[in-house]
Amino acid sequence: MLIGQIESMWASMGPILNVYYREIPRGCAGTDEHDHLIDALRAGNKKKAREAIENDIKRGSPILRYFEERGCD
């Protein structure tokens, strides 16, 4: 079930992220939180997993601003 949700989310976000990442400076991929999340899940550390997800959401705000500024509501 989780895999299906992730695949669905990626299918909808992939094209959007493709546009965004073509226009930002290199090295701003934002994958650190994903690595932290995977490590936390493997370790069974719910607190660290939650922190990684929260940080990923917070770090996503520039992406939202980027599209909002271009009238892509």
UniProtKB/TrEMBL annotation:
Keywords: DNA-binding, Transcription, Transcription regulation. InterPro entries: TF_FadR/GntR_C. It comes from the Bacteria. This is GntR C-terminal domain-containing protein. The lineage of its organism: Bacteria, Pseudomonadati, Pseudomonadota, Alphaproteobacteria, Hyphomicrobiales.
